[in-house]
Amino acid sequence: MSETKGFISALTRRTVLNGIATAGAVAATARLAPGLALAQPSSLLTRAIPATGERIPVVGMGSWITLNVGASKKLRDARVKVLQSFFDHGGGMVDSSPMYGSSEEVIGYCLERIANDQKLFSATKVWTVAQAMGIRQMKTSEKLWGEERFDLLQIHNLLDWEAHMETLKEWKAQKRVRYIGMTTSHGRRHNDLEAVIKSQPLDFVQFTYNILDREAEKRLLPLAADKGLAVIINRPFRRGQLFDLFKRHPLPEWAGEFDCANWSQFFLKFIVSHPAVTCAIPATSRVDHMDENMGALTGRLPDARTRQRMIAHVESL
Amino acid sequence: MLPFTPEVFFAQFEDYNLAIWPAQIIAYALGLLALALAFRPTDSSGRIIGAILASLWLWNGVVYHWLTFATINFAAPLFAALFLVEALLLAWRLVIRGGVAFSFRNDGAGRAGAALMVLAIVIYPLFGALAGHGWPQAAMFGVAPGPTVIFTLGMLLLAEKRVPYGLIVIPLLWSLIGASAVWLLDAPEDVTLLLAGALALVLIARKNRHLS
Ligand SMILES: NC(=O)c1ccc[n+]([C@@H]2O[C@H](COP(=O)([O-])OP(=O)(O)OC[C@H]3O[C@@H](n4cnc5c(N)ncnc54)[C@H](OP(=O)(O)O)[C@@H]3O)[C@@H](O)[C@H]2O)c1
After folding, report:
1. I need a surface site. Which of A39, A284, A310, B32 has the fewest CB within 10 A?
2. Which secondary-structure segment (H or E) carries A143?
3. What is the pLDDT of residues B69-122, one digit of tens each?
């Protein structure tokens, strides 16, 4: 993983690094910080992690259900192809959790068999009670992934967060983890997450936001932006429901104006065009779906007016 | 919402069946022995049947739920605990305390009990095969929870005395949990779990009322 901290201090972070970078923006950055630009494939959409300015691709991948394939060699080898496609498309963040059964072990299996995973941004979670159990769990995760240290460790669903926060702060100070964060999904825990964001020194937060579930727009997204936190969006397809609801309808012609070729890109570009979002982490078990999803990593993004039009459109279907 | 897909569930079952082979044969032999003892009871047959049932529940708790299913399902350790508790209850009530005899009688409870045991041993795996997951993906009697639960309920219906309610709580609970596989895992054979649970509950309650 490339370290960009050295360059960041030399830049006016807000103006150059915040916001989406595309080929043009990266080229502009290249003149100011050549190392930084070299770290990015030229045409990928990336966003800066506010804490450091390090850029990551705006589409990552999740692993709930889709990578939990147990010990089956046949299914594991099929997932190697999915992850391979993810990295071939320039993907970065892979998100998992000890809650996701064998997913972490399967990620480790895949990473061992993939050559071009240098851009991996490893993100997992701690999901247990008590500090000692959390430490044991995080060490197990390191082994399962085959990672010496994670890029990001998050507290899953705020479970016993006070206990784990102690460990995470300590590990970050010891450079045993690069970033720390907290996650929840939809609805009822948003208030709790808000309180934690206000009181704890987090780098990342993760919650649900998609074209139908937009509650986060009201408070969480503005708060995260205000606090300078990177935001990971889970359930970008509402666990796949968005396809069940809309895929029988043709994609509106004007989706081409922001380079969407399918519904997947329509849903993802809606999310990552929100200025406070750092990346979305759709999960898939299929290479063809991965290809579709990663298509959202390039091309233009909808502006604020177009985003309203997107909402109005899906709500009219 | 399950943390895995039906494809993964049955792929795991396939690996499990192949890994534990020939445990299935031993389980079937034990099941048939228990059935035979219920048709030709001896002085110690109640204890032997209790030991067989307890060992099958122990196997399901440890080898299936704890060592296998838990690798893809975070809820499986809880299931393992339930199966271990039932194994202990069966061992304590039927083997250690003893005094519960099982015998076939040609009445409603007797016929239903025998039918449930035949369902568990023969029909359930065949039903699964018809639904597209035959051997080696099949949930086999004795080493898979569903048919083991149905068999246990069937055997308890053959108890000569009142059936201790404590012994049927976990099997009934599993008949509900397991039946969710009909919808969640596309496993229509598990509808028999629900039917077995309902039938056993009604007949055991009736039988206990008559005997009290
Ligand atoms: N509290 C938390 O920390 C938390 C909570 C929820 C989620 N998460 C994280 O966020 C990730 C994403 O959320 P999610 O997995 O719940 O839901 P999601 O990404 O919204 O949806 C996943 C579903 O969408 C389908 N899909 C993906 N790409 C598709 C395409 N191009 N066309 C059609 N269908 C497609 C997948 O099926 P196929 O396999 O068939 O493609 C899968 O069933 C999780 O995997 C997890 O890592 C974290």
Report:
1. B32
2. helix A131-145
3. 999 999 999 999 999 999 999 999 999 999 899 999 999 999 999 999 999 999
Q: How is residue B152 written in tokens?
A: 């246990």
CATH code assigned at A41: 3.20.20.100
Q: Whose CA is closest to A273, among A227, A233, A215?
A: A233
Q: What is the mean pLDDT of residues A154-165?
A: 96
- Would residue A56 count as lying in a domain? yes
- Is B95 a member of any domain? yes
In whole angstroms, what is the distance from residue A310 CA to residue A266 CA?
8
Report whether pLDDT(A34) > 60: no
Q: Determine the structural domain holding residue B130 and report its residue range.
A: 6-211
Q: What is the mean pLDDT of chain B?
A: 95
Host domain of residue A65: 32-316
What is the number of structural domains in chain A? 1
Note the Cα A313 to chain centre separation in Å. Answer: 26
A74–B8 C-beta distance less than 8 A: no
Distance (Å, whole) CA A314 – CA A229: 29
Task: Check pocket membership of A200 for ligand 1, CB cut-off 6 A.
Answer: no
Consecutive 10-residue averages of pLDDT for chain B (212 residues): 94 96 97 96 95 98 98 97 98 95 94 96 93 92 97 96 93 95 91 95 92 76
Total count of domains within chain B: 1
Domain annotation covers residue A5: no
ipTM of the complex: 0.90
Pairing of strands A55-57, A46-48: antiparallel
B113 lies in a domain? yes
Tell me, using a 6 A CB cutoff, whether residue A189 lines ligand 1: no
Nearest CA to B146 out of B4, B13, B50 is that of B13
The CB density around residue A296, as the number of other CB atoms within 10 Å, is 31
